[in-house]
């Protein structure tokens, strides 16, 4: 699938999620290697009004969404893939008044489960705010016993 098709699919998926619209999440980049979303800083996501630090729930939503939508970067056809498990390790708080970016990649795709990993950052991806790993249940035709995984993934991780 072309990178423009991956980007379009990711944007379409994100635009269908109302809570992501409210948070202002935007697709920053989408390729076969992974997905980066942007969470713009705004007063609505402040967790501590005295410091202006972003609420952890907004970061969690960013990372769950990034991992979940990263599945469209590797699957040949769109599938609903609900979150089975998500683990986030917070390294340090996000700096106030700065956007947060979330990157995720799918590192293993099986007929039933997709495994993802990623990180949240602000200015420098090498200084992450948080690390994440997530698993997502496949609900498409392959998971239901149809299709050919090897053919459908077309050389991707198996």
UniProtKB/TrEMBL annotation:
The UniProt record lists the keyword Cell membrane: no
Keyword Glycoprotein among UniProt keywords: no
GO cellular component terms listed in the entry, alphabetical order: cytosol
Domain Thioesterase: residue ranges: 52-127
Superkingdom: Bacteria
SUPFAM superfamilies hit by this protein: Thioesterase/thiol ester dehydrase-isomerase (SSF54637)
One Gene Ontology MF term: 1,4-dihydroxy-2-naphthoyl-CoA thioesterase activity
Keywords carried by this UniProt record: Hydrolase
Protein name: Uncharacterized domain 1-containing protein
Organism encoding this protein: Pseudomonas segetis
Taxonomic path: Bacteria, Pseudomonadati, Pseudomonadota, Gammaproteobacteria, Pseudomonadales
């Amino acid at each position: 699938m072309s990178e423009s098709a991956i980007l379009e699919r990711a944007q379409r998926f994100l635009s269908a999620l109302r809570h992501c619209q409210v948070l202002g999440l935007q697709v920053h980049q989408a390729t076969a290697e992974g997905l980066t979303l942007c969470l713009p800083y705004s007063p609505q996501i402040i967790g501590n009004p005295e410091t202006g630090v972003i609420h952890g729930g907004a970061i969690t939503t960013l990372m769950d969404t990034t991992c979940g939508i990263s599945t469209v970067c590797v699957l040949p056809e769109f599938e609903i893939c609900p979150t089975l498990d998500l683990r986030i390790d917070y390294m340090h708080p996000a700096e106030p008044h700065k956007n947060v970016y979330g990157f995720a990649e799918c590192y293993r795709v099986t007929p039933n489960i997709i495994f993802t990993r990623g990180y949240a950052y602000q200015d420098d991806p090498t200084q992450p705010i948080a690390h994440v790993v997530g698993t997502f249940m496949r609900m498409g035709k392959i998971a239901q016993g149809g299709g050919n995984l090897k053919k459908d993934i077309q050389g991707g991780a198996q």
